[in-house]
Amino acid sequence: MPSLLESLAQFVIEGNAQKAKETTDEALATGVPVADIINKGLVAGMQVVGQKFKCNEFYIPEVLIAARAMKQSMEKLRPLIADSGIQPVGKVAIGTVQGDLHDIGKNLVGMMLEGAGFEVIDLGTDVSPATFVEAVRERGVGAIGLSALLTTTMPAMKETIAALQEAGYRDQVKVIVGGAPLTQAYADEIGADGYAPDAASAVDTAKALLGITA
Ligand code: B1M
After folding, report:
1. Could you say which of 70, 89, 145, 208 would form a disulfide bridge with 117 (CB–CB 3.0 to 4.6 Å)?
2. SS (H, E, C) 133-152
3. Between 1.10.1240.10, 3.40.1160.10, 1.10.155.10, 1.20.140.10, what CATH number should domain 4-84 receive?
4. Substitution site in 51, 62, 102 for ligand 1 pocket (most atoms within 8 Å of beta carbon)
5. Above 90 in pLDDT, residue 52?
């Protein structure tokens, strides 16, 4: 018989938000530590979702439904996280670059990062280079994730990297870029630290760049 946390992971994989929330409540009621609920339940489930997405066993709808289940359980735990002293594995600010309003892929990246234990600051869409700079200055993020879906907005990524350089923060923060028209070659050309073709790979890239082994 699966343990409570194995069941929770499975409900996340299946995208069963109701059951995931009930199991989270049950785990809390039986005294399971919040860190275990997150790591052995929610994150473990999202890891499987990420793997299935990468090998085309899951498609975007399944990932979104799983992420919604993860998020709803996370909402129950969020007030308890501060008390339990759990630290996020890293802090990332994400946004769709200036001039670009597409946010489905960016949201997916944010949810996968959150599912992997990152604190995610979502700056939204049409984000100016100055706003990304401000996130580094004011929020102390270790990485920023730039998303672009239009060939015409790809240059805003280069402008954002230049703005970070100009403000003196380029060495303090890793820059990850992604979006349908992006390539590794373009990421290299504009001096990004990392490129990820999909949301699951964005988690691997962020972890690798920030030296997170967990
Ligand atoms: Co737009 N649109 N759109 N659109 N739209 C595209 C992108 C387009 C390819 C359609 C086409 O012509 N075939 C085309 C771009 C052409 C080009 O530049 N070469 C296009 C255009 C032209 C436009 C407008 C200019 C249309 C117009 O008004 N004339 C306009 C621009 C508005 C603007 O942004 N200023 C526009 C508007 C819109 C809508 C508002 C209607 C809507 C967006 C709704 C929303 O996002 N809230 C929309 C949509 C939905 C699309 C398509 C159909 C789907 C995009 C999408 O969400 N894909 C798209 C055509 C297509 O792709 N079939 C199209 C699903 C999403 C999960 O994938 O975002 O690629 P994607 O994210 C992936 C990866 O790329 C990666 O991970 C994700 C999941 O694996 N990823 C990252 C993304 N960001 C990442 C960041 C990372 C790492 C990985 O690290 C930080």
Report:
1. 89
2. HHHHHHHCCCEEEEECCCCC
3. 1.10.1240.10
4. 102
5. yes
Residue 41 CA to ligand 1 centre (angstroms): 32
Instruction: Count other C-beta atoms under 10 Å from residue 3's C-beta.
Output: 12
Return the pLDDT at 114.
87
The region that residue 120 occupies, defined by phi over 0 for left and psi between -120 and 50 for alpha, beta otherwise, is beta
Average pLDDT over residues 128-155: 97
Does the pLDDT value for residue 14 go beyond 80? Answer: yes
Number of neighbouring beta carbons within 10 Å of residue 155: 14
Please give the distance, rounded to the nearest whole angstrom, from the Cα atom of residue 98 to the centre of ligand 1: 14
Q: pTM value?
A: 0.88
Cα(105) to ligand 1 centroid in Å equals: 8
Structure tokens at 66: 């799983």
